[in-house]
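Input.
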Amino acid sequence: MANAFSPDARPLTRRRGTRRPAGRGTAVVALTASALLAAVLPAVPATAAAPVPRIDLKVLVVDDGGESVAAVTSELRGTGVPYSVVDLDDPGRPQITPGFLSDTVSGRPRAKYQGVVLPNEAPFGTDPTGAAEQAALVAYEKTFGIRQVDAYTWAHPGVGLDYTSDGGWAGTLDGAAAAVTPAGRSGPFGYLDGALTFEDNAPTVGESYGYLGRPREGFTSYVDAPVPDTGGRASLVGEYAHDGRRELVVTFAYNQHQRQFRLLARGIVEWLTQGVHLGQSRNYFSVHVDDVFAPDARWDTERNCTPGDIDCAGPGGEQTPDIRMTADDARYAAAWQRSAGFTLDMVHNAGAGEEWKAEHGGSDPLAAQLLADKAQYRWVNHTYTHPFLGCVQDVSVVPWRCAKNADGTTRYMSRAEIAAQIRDNHNWAVRNGLPVDRTELVTGEHSGLRVLPQQPDDNPNLAGALADTGVTWIASDNSRDPQQRSVGTARTVPRHPMNVYYNTGTAAEMADEYNWIYTSKADGGSGICETNPASTCLPAPLDPATGYATHIVPQEVRTALGHVIAGDPRPHYVHQSNLAEERILYPVLDRVLADYRALFADSTPLVNPRHREVGTELNRRAAWQQALAGGKVTAYRIGTTVTVQAPSGVAVPVTAPEGTRKQHLLGTTVFGTPYAGQRSAWTGPELLQTAVTLRLPATT
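Output.
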């Protein structure tokens, strides 16, 4: 790869077709900042002190349709930061003028935006209108101290970097060993531990293109990488301070899903907002282990199906041995939790365990061991015997269909039957001292909720049964039902399925079933991957002896860690069979935890919420987004005082620096909880107050 910039190269992750993410021309700013400000700010007598300006807590996003701006916007949205978008491709868009950016409220100058996200340093074009927009933005940023993110640009002196031909480099960054610099770690990226390796998921395809540029005067590099064949390093992300303004300059292409962006996204927002903004984020990871106490059916590697399923016919109806944890497996799980510093959620079916015990001489060492260690886990109701709680299934046909009543209507499990399954399991747990929460429920196969194509609607008896038993948080499958929604008075908690299958207890079984699903018919598979547009066939079947460790585990780790670092609180779910026999779940969990702890500083620990806490978080987020969309939130900063007004009953997410205090009628208290070097919380007005008032530290 040449070290010089290649003008005919093309970035793979950018919609518009050039490597160089240049703007619509570099404008010559003809209007002075003072002339622009005179048009919008009131005259102030020479003897009067200028009032401290009000800075509204909202971000302006100028969008060119590129993936880098979309990625930053996704982080703002996911965090809960309010923002407005100006689409450069919309002919009817508002013009960026002094009046668009600022005005005066009650005699006080107001900046309408606390930060600006641009596609690059000069996106408006070279015509007079574009030049005027650039000039207005420059004047605004200087006057109010507003920061600007250049979402993706190239290395050149206009952004404080040398050209790549002068000791830098341009090319594909896949697998590059980037790192957060000391300045980055003491600044906006202090929540990272330093190392930051670019993804390289498809070695034959370039995934990230970028420019390594050497800093010039006024430029502080926050993330750098080695310059190939030189032994030196150059910048990929850094701050350019010049002309009374500050820009965060990013010189590599990315999208919202790539790990390198996800790791840096928090710091980009904190830098942009100067550490004071609406919204908050954490990194979450919870794992639900379904079917605890129950046995799970086993995949048949000869028939490529699971005996007991309606589509698994065979000569003589042969059965494979069920998979069920042993007492040793339970002891291992408890010891693993202690060593890993992580708590599993045991989603249990007590009645299925009682049936197993009755069939095996009345003794159950597994249950005895789990009950002995009950305080070490969290426990969630999974119904007593794991029946299907939706329509009555007609299994005389494949695939199954909903049975019908005589009048042609769908026949459903009754409200009383559903309630009995929930209540019996809860009562067993209480009798045996399990620390259960009545409000939490995971139904078997997420049944009772709609399942396409057979049952397009929830069982109409489900909502009443949930109310009868005090359930307010019911799990759904995120792959089928990803958005939280209401089921009567309850709310769903979407869960991510892990590709560690419920019907496998060994790595060879797991690889065999994976091959069947993800291999073409020509290679001996089912061919499902050839007809499902959401699936991709393996180039060749996995080796049953090694495929799980070399292919499946890394894939699942990447997927799960992607959810974690995206701030997604949804739990992941597996099954008790994955803790039995070869205990194939642990390599995935060990890697997720180890990779996370290698990436993040101790100030940014994994949050391990229980079922109801996830539901509450998702519910708060939805209410917050609804309040923002309705224009019902007012938030601003005047000096070191932050004021937030939101609809009554809506929790407000706020992030602020260490040292921030919350104002009460009498005195103040420390605000929020520490995370990633900041303090943050869902908060609201105190008694007899109509707004949230925060006092920032004097140095902010």
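Residues 547-565 form the longest helix (19 residues).
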